[in-house]
Input
Amino acid sequence: MFRVASEDAAVAVEHVQTKREVAEALAAVGMRPRKMFGQNFLIDGNLMRQLVAAADLTKHDLAIEVGAGTGGLTDLLVARAGHVVSVEIDRDLQGVIAQRFQDHDNFRLISGDALETKHRIIDVLAAAIAGYDNPGGAVKLVANLPYQIATPLVMNLLVDYPQVRSFVFTVQAEVGDRVTASPGTKAYGPLAIISQLLTDASTVARIPPEAFWPRPSIRSVMLKLEVKPSPFGDVARLWRFASFVRGVFEHRRKTIRAAVRFLSDTDVSDTLFKPTDATRRPESFTLSEWLVLFERFESLTTGEP
Output
């Protein structure tokens, strides 16, 4: 059960950590940024405020933060959201975060990797999302995402957790391009298809390398995904659609006919692709065409309409 901050509670001053403060917090526990965890700390205060403002948080909302770091963004989240659940994998930083927010009743720290496997988030985070029930509120991902887990994390939340109603996050520009990619482009794939079917995506800001410490070698982007009505009746059917798309794109260099043959013991391609051109590549299919292909594939392989 979550305890939601009162509307009348005093709002904390929205302090944003500077580079010096981040470095001092790390030095206090004898560490420096670790590449293995993708630790590039967002130190631009204006961009952090823009990130949180784009989430439009209220005291009824649950904010999910993955990659809490030294708590720079967390400061803003606990001041605006009803409840904040932050996930941090680095054991040294877990201690920093636990101490920093020990007096905040609306804060909870989950220690560990947000992902149990590539296609599954950890149970404790899943329970936190599924268990949040506040009329008028929503679950929102608001985070400076570690680059290594951004794609699988967003995909898992989109497919398996309809409770998450919006996503506002920073990520490398390459991943941003894969979210907004159009059919026929190299970046177009499962992430674009799932994201665009389930959300309205927009770019909040382009982020230069100098907005982070240490400075990454690549550019980043701040995205906002607002969940819209799903074309599927239930989560199980959406999961099967996502599995179908992922399976086909595992063979994206093949024709769509050849790729689909890996997904079924029975060759259904002759019926499946009438009147579609079966020599096209998977990345050439539009969202509506993917839905039609999936409907036909389900009907032919399961006997269900």
